[in-house]
Specification:
Helices cover 18% and strands 35% of the residues. It is an alpha+beta fold and 420 residues long.
Amino acid sequence: MNEENNELLAALDAQPDVKVGDVVKGEVLAIDDARQVVVGIDGAGVEGVIPARELTADRDADVNDLVKVGDVIEAVVKMPITSEKEGYSWILSKRQLEARRAWDEIASKYNEDDIVEAPVTQVVKGGLVVDVAGVRGFVPASMIENRFVQDLNQYKGQTIKAKIIEINSAESRLILSRKAVLNEERSEALKRVFEEMTVGDIVEGKVARMTNFGAFIDLGGVDGLVHVSEISHERVSQPSDVLSVGEDVKVKVLGLDAEKERISLSIKATQPGPWEAAAEKAPEGTVLEGTVKRVVDFGAFVEVFPGVEGLVHVSQISHQHVDNPSDVLKAGDKVEVKVLEVNPDKQRLSLSIKALTEAPAREGGSSNDGERRPRRNNNNSNNGGGRRNNQRESAPMNYSTSEEEGNATLGDLFNLKDFD
């Protein structure tokens, strides 16, 4: 009897100890009602259980479809459990074993600075959760783009290219950066663009994003800016009024600054200007309807086509003497005008309102508008006001008079602030 007891004790002593973290193998003995897989651990003489959550990440999976009684399964010893009912046992994890092996593969296959393709599996508050060869990785929000991104949900389900910036299998820590990849690609694209592109080139691009001051156009990994003033020949208040993200556009290269990595573009420079068709649409003598845009001391500017404005000189407003154009006209007024002169090259359009109205009858029964008013006090050298009024009334139908504006052109009369 003593000999039998000694043999039993020796057999028990020979059984290996089970410790947390060990990889064990065992036969599936049963699948209980709690969706737990009962495993007899080989060589240990004890049982372990694998809860469903430690068997698969799929919460809806049926455990009976994954394992059968009699199967041999490997798992990691996760923690001990004590139950008066079931005796001493262990909680095992098949998922943890798979993750450990995946980490070992990641550690042997990849190093820091390696670039991987990773599906985005989850969007969390601080960034993106990705899958790298079965290992959970994390891309912080600040490392997703080389600009601020407000909505991260747009990346869910996408597969992104990212660089590994930290890998620590002992702590199951894998941090990646998509921004680092984008910056490298942008540097290469910038180098190519500044080598191949020159000012004046017309190229195709795609609207990437818009701001209040313009639209950024993707030229193939590099963004160039179309300022709001270069979007259209017509006045544009907001770029989003005429453009949409993803739209294909043709742009002309206005400037290249390699040092500041800036590319200035224009959409309107690729389109015919409104003045190019002005001579055809509005030859001399044409009657048009327009809108008063600005009223100045010497007349009023009237828009007759989008982007085309002409000047109604003060002398062409009315047959009656007009001392101040603002007494008769104001911005927003709709008026009919007659074209007196058109010069597309100089972007010059002379208009008249009074040419469309009948001149009032003068004393003596004449209503001929070509008849000049009698000069007053011609011999009085001190009557400067009368002489100036006479000169303005008899001024040629043009943008200037010899005394008030000299030889001013449209550019001279058009103060730049009028464009604001």
